[in-house]
Amino acid sequence: MTMHSKFITKFSMTTALLALAWPLSAADGDQALLDKAKALFQPLPATAALENSSLTPTRVALGKALFFETRVSNDGRLACATCHNPAYHGADSLALSVGINGKVLPRNAHTVFNTALLVAQHYGGNRVSVEDQAVKALLSPLAYGNTSYEQVEKKLAQLGYQSWFDKAYPGEAKPLSAENWGKAIGAFERTLLTPSPFDKYLKGDTKALSPLAKKGLTTFIDTGCAGCHNGVTVGGQSYQKFGITQDYWKLTGSTEKEIFKGYDKGRFHDTKNEADAFMFKVPQLRNVAATPPYFHDGSVATLPQAVRIMGQLQLGKDLSDEDVNAIVAFLESLTGEVPANFAQVPQLPVAPH
Amino acid sequence: MTMHSKFITKFSMTTALLALAWPLSAADGDQALLDKAKALFQPLPATAALENSSLTPTRVALGKALFFETRVSNDGRLACATCHNPAYHGADSLALSVGINGKVLPRNAHTVFNTALLVAQHYGGNRVSVEDQAVKALLSPLAYGNTSYEQVEKKLAQLGYQSWFDKAYPGEAKPLSAENWGKAIGAFERTLLTPSPFDKYLKGDTKALSPLAKKGLTTFIDTGCAGCHNGVTVGGQSYQKFGITQDYWKLTGSTEKEIFKGYDKGRFHDTKNEADAFMFKVPQLRNVAATPPYFHDGSVATLPQAVRIMGQLQLGKDLSDEDVNAIVAFLESLTGEVPANFAQVPQLPVAPH
Lengths: 353, 353
Prior knowledge:
2 copies of one chain form a homodimer. The first copy, chain A, contains 14 helices and 2 strands. A two-stranded antiparallel sheet of chain A has the order 1-2. Chains A and B meet through helix 12 of A and helix 12 of B.
C-alpha cells in the first residue's frame, strides 16, 4: 500500500464514520441551540415605526437632512451625523464624543442603528425616545448649544426649511417646530435597522453562523451574558449595575470626571437616587464589533478585552482565550450592513438670498 | 367684436410678428454669445487624471476611504470630509474652517470639486497639487496636527490599511507611505468633476441656459468678470490683487487676524515678497452658488452681495440690481451635481484586535 492510498483509505473511513455520526448529532445540537436562542432573542422587526406615527417619505427625507445639518448647532459644525457617522457604523470611533466648540461630552456615543428599539436613549436613560433625544440635544450646552427652541426655529426658517416642514407635516398649525425637528429625525432613525447574520439564524438558517460563532453563542448563553444582553437588540432593554464584583474602573482604567465629581455613577446623576448609583442602561450589542471603543467612557479599545472584562466585572468569571474568541465570533454575527440611505449624504438647502 | 375675440386677434398678430422676427435675431444673438463664451471658457474634461498616473479603482477607493478617515488626525475628529462635506457641495458652510482641537483656520474652505484642475491649491497657491495639499495637511498644526510622517504611517498600519495600500500600489518598496496617502487622496479628488448646465451650453446646447442666465453671461463677459474668471474652471488659473479700487476689507467687512499680524495679505504670507501683497488665487466659480459664504475669509454671506462687491472692488463698477440678478443666474448654471460616489460615505476598517 502506498502512502497515497493509505491516506485515501484513512480519509474515507473517517468520512464514513462522520457520515454516520456527525449529521445527526450536529443537527440535534444545532436545533437545540437555535431553540435556546429563540427563547432569548428575537430577529429585528420590519420597522421601528411608532404605532401612532407614520414614517412618510417626506418625513424621513426631512429627518435625514436635519440629521446631517450642521448649521443649527451654535458653532455651525455639529450635526447628529458628527457623532453618528456612516463611516463608523453610526458611531464616531472616539472614546468620548465632542460637542460644540470642542467641548468633550461625558460619555461614548452609541451607534444610532436600531436605537429606536431600545428601552430609552443615553446610558442614563434620561431620554425616553429618539424623538425626545433629538429635541433635547438642541438646547444642551454641550451638544447643539442653542438658547431656545425659538432660536432653532428661526435658524431652520432662514436656512430654507419652511417648505420641507410644510410638506412633511401638512395641515398642522405650526409645521416648522422643534417638536417636529424631533419627530422628523426620529422618523429617519426609525428606518435605521441593520439585519445581521444572527437574524437569519434566528429565522431558522442555522448555517448563517459559523461553527465558532455558534460555540460563542452557546458560551454567551451558558456563561450568563444573555441574562442582560437579550431581546431583539441583544441588550438595551434594562438597567444594570456596572461593576458587580468590584469597582468597574479598577478593570476598565476609567478616570474620574469633573462633571460627575468623581467616577461616572450612571443613572444616579439624573435621578439623584442612591439606588441608581452605577446603574447604566445595558448597551445593545448589535453592531458592537464595528463600533469600538467600548463602555460608557470608551475606556477599553478592543472587543476581546471588553468581553474579558465583562466576564470578570459582571459574572465573576475569568473567561479563557478560547471562550473570548468564540464570544467575539458570535458578536461579529450581530454586525449588519450600514443602511444604504444612511450612507448617502443628502444635499442640504442653500440659504435663500 | 367681443373682448375675447379681440384678444385672440391681438395675440395672433403678435405671434405672427414674432414668428417672422424673433427666431432669426434670437438665434443670431445666441450663436454670437456662444462663440464669445467658447473663446473664454471650456467644458470640463472627462478626467482630471495626471498624465503620468492612472486612477485605478483600488487607488480611488483607498483615497476615498482616507478622505473620510478621522482617526489619522491628532484629535481623532478631522477628515478631509470635515471641511469638504458632501452635504455642502464639497465645502463646509462655515466662514472659516476649523481644524483639530477647535483651532480656527485662517481661511474659508474651497469646494473640493474640480479643484484638481486649478493652477495650485489654497488661496495662496502654496500647495502645487491636490496630492501636495493632502500630504502637507498631515503635519499642519492647524489641520491634522501630526508630528511626523512616520507617526501617520504607524497610525494607518494600526488601523488596518496595510493591505489597502499593498493592493493600490503593488510592487512598490513601501506601499504604505505618506506620499501614497497623498497620491490616493489625489486620485479620488481627480474623479470629483461636476459637469453643469454651462458645460452643455459650451458644447452647443444653447437652451441649457435660461434667457436670464444668458443675459448674465453677457454681462459677466462685457463687465470684465471673465478677465480673471475664465478657462475650464471659470477662474482658479491665476493670481490677482484682491481690492484694486480700494482696500477689500472696507467693503467685505473682513477683520484683522493675529496669524497675519493684520489683514490677510494673500500670497505675501507665503512668499514674503511685497509684490505679492494682497495677491490671492482667483477662485474658480464652478459651484459657487452652492457654496456660501464668500471670499477668502467667508466674510460675505450671499452671492448677490459678493457679485456687487466684486464689481466695486475689482472693476470700479456699481452693478445694477438687474445686472447682479442676471450674473447670479449665470453663476447658478455653474452648479453641477454632487458626484454620487462622493456622497456615498465608505465603510472604514475597524482596527484589528
